[in-house]
Amino acid sequence: MAKKKASIIDTNKAVAYIRVSSREQEKGYSLSAQEKLLRKYAEDEGYEIVEFFREAMSAKTSGRKQFNLMLKYLKSHNDVNKLLVEKTDRITRNFKDVVVLDSIEGLELHFVKEGSIISEKSKSQDKMIYGLRVVLSKQYIDNLKEEAEKGILAKIEDGIYPSIAPVGYYNTMDKRGRHIIAVDEDK
Q: What are the distances in angstroms from CA 126 to CA 19, 102, 108, 118?
């Protein structure tokens, strides 16, 4: 990845990144709560948020549209070297994104809820804690996948269809209160 222009200008300008994992979560209050938190932090610290990047997409893999637009913005604006985010798992749950963020010369990552700032000048202890938070965020996603697969397999073993009913069937409950599918006579 290309680094920022050589002449880094340390200013009070920042970008903010807020994220939820799905379109369904986007309908809730998390994005607005994150935005409010970051605006308050910026005001308290005397930072000017010049751009907000909002996303409703999982961070388990790299390639998020707004995240990539934010990276491009940071690399092309050498007068913006602060990235404000609620906490580690809002910016990434994968290792590739960490490497890309780390490649941006002069970037300061402000993790508002965690009370930490990570930059090239950070102490090794702070960088280690950040690294552990990334590992724990990734482990959360990996474990979630394992648990979902375990639940699907258990449903199949119990003779229960493990997903939304296909065309010609509908979702219902049996007498024991288990979710099952039944034939849709009309379809």
A: 23, 14, 13, 7
Q: Which residues pair with 85 in a beta bridge?
A: 17, 111
- Say what percent of the chain tops pLDDT 90: 35
H-helix or E-strand spanning residue 16? strand 13-20
Angle between helices 124-157 and 95-102 (to 10 degrees): 160
Distance separating alpha carbons of residues 172 and 87, to the nearest angstrom = 40
What secondary structure, in 3-state letters, does 110-165 show? EECCCCEEECCCCCHHHHHHHHHHHHHHHHHHHHHHHHHHHHHHHHHHCCCCCCCC
pLDDT greater than 70 at residue 159: yes
DSSP symbols for 49-116: EEEEEEEES--SSS--HHHHHHHHHHHH-TT--EEEESSHHHH-SSHHHHHHHHTSTT-EEEETTTTE
Q: Calculate the average pLDDT of the chain.
A: 85
Q: Is the pLDDT of residue 3 over 50?
A: no
Q: What is the pLDDT of residues 101-137, one digit of tens each?
A: 888 889 999 999 999 999 989 899 888 888 888 778 7
Q: Which DSSP category does 27 fall into? A: T
